[in-house]
Amino acid sequence: MRQHQPASLDELLALAQGYAEFAMRNIGHVPPALLAESPSGLIHFVPDSLKDERAKDNLANTARLICVGYEVTAAVLVLEAWMKMAKPGETLDMTEPPSEAFDRREVVMLTGETVQHCKQMLLPIIRTDAGGFFGFGEHDGPKLDNFEGRFAQLLPP
Asked: Which range is least confidently modeled, 25-34, 63-72, 115-124, 146-155?
């Protein structure tokens, strides 16, 4: 029997990026997903939907349970989202949600973690004039080194 070779966080992030690109090209959006590395192999979990706050909380809680139950060593959460950024020299306006902001950006967020460290990637979605997926751009904003919220700290301490 062949022993499973665990994937590093960078390899898991690369798989997640491939998943996101495949989904965008084939169905036009990215279903939320958890990719996780466990001693027994790769885990891929896709919830039914993220239609409301309760569904988002359920995904975060289910992801944490998967990480504990399968002794996950690395995990990446893939989420399509709206993002807004502060203009240079200005403070971010937190009065309106990103989904309602005029200057919002459509992105796929990859947030990965191991017990030792976390790593995030933002993949700005570039669309054709007709609204189809063209590709991912480069994130030209600040380095992402601090991530908080319901989808952070999936692995147990």
From this structure: 146-155
CB proximity list for 107: less than 8 A, separation 6 or greater: 80, 81, 82, 83, 122, 123, 124, 125, 139
For the CA atoms of 77, 80, 84, 85, the dihedral, rounded to the nearest 10 degrees, stands at 40
Instruction: Please give the pLDDT value at position 56.
Output: 93
Does residue 115 contact residue 155 with C-beta atoms inside 8 Å?
yes
Structure token pair of residue 153:
């700290």
Query: Where is 21: in which H helix or E strand?
Result: helix 9-27
pLDDT at 141 over 80: no
For 151, other C-beta atoms within 10 Å of its C-beta total 19
Looking at residue 103, its pLDDT comes to: 77
Strands lying side by side in the sheet with 105-114? 41-45, 33-38, 74-83, 105-114, 118-127, 133-136
- Biggest CA-to-CA distance, the chain: 58
Distance CA 39, CA 6 (A): 7
Tell me which H or E stretch contains 107. strand 105-114
User: Quick one: CA dihedral 17, 23, 29, 31, positive or negative?
Assistant: negative
Instruction: Inform me whether the pLDDT recorded for 94 exceeds 70.
Output: yes
